[in-house]
Amino acid sequence: MHDHPDPDQELTSGRRPLPDKLGTAFLYLFAAAPLLFYSLLLAAAGRTPTPDIDIPGLLTDMGIGAAGLVLLPWRRRWPWQVALLTALPTAFSFAMNGPAIVAFASLALHRRWRQVVPVAVVFWLCVLASTRWKGEFLLTALYGLVSGLVFTGITLFGLYLRGRRELEDAQRAAQEAAQAQRVEQAKLAERLKIAQEMHDVLAHRISLLAMLAGGLAYRKDLGPEQTRETALAIQENAHQSLNELRAVLGMLRRDGGLEAPQPTLAHLDALFEEVRAAGQRVEVDDTLDGRESLPTQTGRHAYRIVQEALTNARKHAPGTPVRAEIGGRPGAGLRIRVSNPVPDGAAGPGGRLGLVGLAERTRMAGGTITHDVRDGRFVLDALLPWEA
């Protein structure tokens, strides 16, 4: 026979396993102790007949005790009912005391005091009634005192263990909730990173498209071949924008992180060629030392910072030359400085939003970034950590 699951236990933890086989065997051995005692008594009576032993009564008592053992597997499904059914026969059955004590201990361990105390009182009264048949007041008083202490101890110990289990369940639930919250925060942070990637990629592409389209709109001196080349450049950048947008949205749908390959510092030359082909004038001063030891993640952040700085220059200072300075070495950090002349007039739409994103990206990378106007030039200066 197998124990049935305890509904109260399942509600509190949902995963606590049933008692192990050794513990269950010990409980049933304790519950069967009176039956084992009677069996030894019958064996002794078989070898040496004793007229004082009531064999039929003994067998009847053993049958009642065996019925109590049969009820025990249901003590978890119907805890107070089984405890009460096994407690009542103890008024006239000694063999039922084992199953009754086990059922009552299980009740005290898994149920609240409102169910435990009434059953404890009934059990105690039945124990007192079992001694009244003998008509000895002192024996009844002794039984009442000892059994009262035993029931009180079992009740308090069971309620204490239940309280401990509830506390453990509450702590476990709090830890799981905290872990779930950390997971959600990690997902949100990753989504924010993806959103930042989307902004950097699309802002770069769209600003290139705007520059190329502006050239077609305002340049009257372009020949057919130049017009065709510009149109092809617009088409190519539009396709690149769509492909990059699909890639980023695919990451969001998969609810996953950014996947390699992502552009790093090694792709800066291609970026400079791309913006120059679109008409942006860029002067590069690269004094980087030991670039092969630069961490991939740092190179990725560096690429995005340069890309956004070039985009920012195209949006707010179109037509002005841009100077990009990249330097640093392991242990001293990676320094990126992008500057351009400040034109007259107000900034274009979306001003400062890209810089806010760059500041957040740099902060997450453990670096620093500043931007201000110096001697008529807008200067963006970033420093990323680079361990030796």
UniProtKB/TrEMBL annotation:
Residues 190-255 form the Signal transduction histidine kinase subgroup 3 dimerisation and phosphoacceptor domain. Its EC number is 2.7.13.3. The keyword ATP-binding applies. Keywords: ATP-binding, Kinase, Membrane, Nucleotide-binding, Phosphoprotein, Transferase, Transmembrane, Transmembrane helix, Two-component regulatory system. The keyword Electron transport does not apply. GO terms for molecular function: kinase activity. The chain crosses the membrane at residues 25-45, 57-74, 80-109, 116-133, 139-161. InterPro entries: HATPase_C_sf, Sensor_HK_TwoCompSys, Sig_transdc_His_kin_sub3_dim/P. It catalyses: ATP + protein L-histidine = ADP + protein N-phospho-L-histidine. This is histidine kinase. It comes from Nonomuraea insulae.
